Automatic annotation (TrEMBL):
The gene is hflX. It comes from Gallaecimonas xiamenensis 3-C-1. Pfam families: GTP-bdg_M, GTP-bdg_N, MMR_HSR1. GTP binds at residues 204-211, 229-233, 251-254, 317-320, 343-345. Monomer. Associates with the 50S ribosomal subunit. It is found in: Cytoplasm. Mg(2+) binds at residues 211, 231. GO terms for molecular function: GTP binding; GTPase activity; guanosine tetraphosphate binding; metal ion binding; peptidase activity; ribosome binding. One of its GO terms (biological process) is proteolysis. It comes from the Bacteria. This is GTPase HflX. Its main location: cytoplasm.
Length: 436
């Protein structure tokens, strides 16, 4: 349907080293992405620029150099380590006479290969369709309304308009199905909340070792490999923590710098597991020289999905690749665990992680007895709406005595909304107001 060259498995990579730090991409990361996609790299062309060229992104002379390289090596696709505009893609394909992909399209292709569940496939298709909708070009011409005469009159719209309408209809259909999936996930979270089961979500840069750690903690058989985006579909497993009981551990998709916005939007239902978690386990590849920058990129994505206020425990993984570094727990000034150093693959330091999780999760749960006067019916209703009330009775003065248990983040949010109103109703001496 579309006037595009067919993509192949033999690629020439193009990387631009920009002067501005915010515009730079990592060439090694591009090579890993290409390898994860199953594509063979024939050559790498690099250049330096202050700003993208409006027509070819890389400048006329360098574009002609890439075209000569494509012809000489018989490459089937050229992959840019940057986001291209639809016009730049068409101009480059016309010059190279082969398919041109940008970084976003490459990531979407990897996601399409990795999707296993029905939900994952829907999310990838939605992201691909949104990306494709800006890249529709001239297709069939026999339906164009500009033509006249017997046998040439079309249905009143050009084929391009037809394609756009079909895309819009398909996007709407997928969004409705994903909304149903989101409701199902929300019901699951409510059920866990009613059972007071905390959720711990693994987050981190792609290939940081999240799935390997997940398998080590849960004895699961989640696919784990030394490649980018090995995990796409979220997996939930139950883990027993000392002094806490059962918790739910969620393995999620890895993040990457300049994560396409269409992907963030499409994976909203999946990322809800991260936003609604009681505690985030931020897994970092401690042996990666870009670990500090990757950590910042993850924090940026967490802020983008509104999960930056969820408590975090740093987990520095792949300790076996470092010299003279032993598994340990780093603590704050008040003794709270803030980071754990371990090796998930070698099963080194896992007991320290479980110890840190037990301490953090037990801290993150607020438990108290509240004594509410009849005038505080609204606060009582909010506590019941949060499913935080475990017991209730009325004392001799007609006041509500409530035993509450909820995530500390919900308690803090409740007090923030009421400017600390709920704080003054905590029973200072529970022995005086004990619930039988």
């Amino acid at each position: 349907m579309f006037d595009r060259y067919e993509a192949g498995e033999q690629a020439v990579l193009v990387h631009v080293d920009f002067a501005a730090e915010s515009d730079r991409e990592d060439l090694d990361e591009l090579k890993m992405l290409v390898d994860s996609a199953g594509v063979t790299t024939l050559a790498v062309v690099t250049t330096r620029r202050n700003a993208p060229h409006p027509k070819f992104y890389i400048g006329t002379g360098k574009a002609e150099e890439v075209a000569e390289t494509v012809q000489a090596l018989g490459a089937e696709v050229v992959i840019f380590n940057h986001a291209l505009s639809p016009a730049q893609e068409r101009n480059l394909e016309r010059l190279f006479q082969c398919r041109v992909l940008d970084r976003t399209t490459l990531i979407l292709d990897i996601f399409a290969q990795r999707a296993r569940t029905h939900e994952g496939k829907l999310q990838v298709e939605l992201a691909q369709l949104k990306h494709l909708s800006t890249r529709l070009v001239r297709g069939w011409t026999h339906l164009e309304r500009q033509k006249g005469g017997i046998g040439l009159r079309g249905p009143g719209e050009t084929q391009l308009e037809t394609d756009r309408r079909l895309l819009r209809d398909r996007i709407t259909h997928i969004q409705k199905r994903l909304e149903k999936v989101a409701k199902q996930r929300e019901q699951g979270r409510r059920a866990r909340s009613r059972r007071e089961v905390p959720t711990l979500s693994l987050v981190g840069y792609t290939n940081a070792g999240k799935s390997t750690l997940f398998n080590a903690l849960t004895s699961a058989d989640v696919y784990a490999a030394d490649q980018l985006f090995a995990t796409l579909d979220p997996t939930l497993r139950k883990v027993q923590l000392a002094d806490v009981g059962p918790v739910i551990l969620a393995d999620t998709v890895g993040f990457i710098r300049h994560l396409p916005h269409d992907l963030v939007a499409a994976f909203k239902a999946t990322l809800e597991e991260t936003r609604e978690a009681s505690l985030l386990l931020h897994v970092v590849d401690a042996a990666d020289e870009r670990a500090a920058d990757n950590t910042l990129q993850v924090k940026h994505v967490l802020k983008e999905i509104e999960a930056d206020e969820v408590p975090v425990l740093m987990v520095y993984n792949k300790l076996d690749k470092l010299d003279d570094v032993a598994p340990r727990i780093d603590r704050s000034d008040d003794g709270t665990p803030v980071a754990v150093w371990l090796s998930a693959q070698k099963h080194q330091g896992l007991e320290l992680l479980l110890q840190a999780l037990s301490e953090r999760v037990s801290e993150e749960v607020f438990c108290a007895t509240l004594c509410l006067p009849p005038s505080q019916g609204k606060l009582r209703a909010e506590l019941f709406a949060l499913q935080a009330v475990t017991e209730e009775r009325i004392d001799d003065q007609g006041q509500w005595l409530l035993k509450v248990r909820m995530p500390d983040i919900d308690w803090q949010r409740l007090n923030k909304q009421g400017q600390g109103a709920a704080l003054r109703f905590i029973v200072s001496d529970p022995a005086d107001k004990v619930l039988q």
